[in-house]
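Here's what a typical entry looks like (Thiamine ABC transporter ATP-binding protein):
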Amino acid sequence: MLVLDDVQYTYQRELFRFDLEIKRGQIVSLMGPSGAGKSTLLALVAGFINPDLGDILVDGTSIVSKEPYQRPFSMLFQEHNLFAHLSVRDNIGLGLHPGLKLTADQKLLVEQAAKQVGVAEYLDRLPEHLSGGQRQRVALARCFVQPHPMWLLDEPFSALDPVLREEMLTLVKQLATERGITVLMVTHHLSDARAIASHFAFVAGGQVEASGDIDELAVSHSSDVLAAFVRAAG
């Protein structure tokens, strides 16, 4: 379980204040208008920025004093961040060891991950010889090959065309469900949220304005701000 307990952060005199609880195995879409604080919330959870007050807990243990690499999260961003001089095999392997000193079992995990995302035939290719969608699949494999119980996704597929984006969302949902992974995913697209998420958290004005089951995303929601957001989206 991930808990943000009165987490406060100030940036250029703007106060962000977050309370949120995510249960194990939930796929949560983090939504809201631009500038509302979605990426700030994700950065606080990941450890890229530190809160001024409050606590962030995973399974009851505080992680606010831990560095990003010490936190139990795998992360995937819009930029795939593949290393151009490394093969697909090695780019995925970096998720297991930064020096690529992999055991035989870890090498097998890399091959299995590549197969699951559909890039097994490209293991020895460099990123420049892959399409944009294939590169993002490699980044996804590097993300989930790591033995972490939670994924943090910051609009990783927003630059892809609608058909490919839907394929990737379906793949993430399938992999996360099979493994019992908890997912927190930032998205601007209501359709993406409904395609992948079991729950949502709506951020507005620097705080979590509403959260709940994904089926509660409707123009009739009790939060006027959320209802207006849903109405505008569609």
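Strands lie at 2-11, 14-22, 27-31, 53-58, 61-62, 73-77, 150-154, 182-186, 199-204, 207-213.

More examples are in the samples folder.
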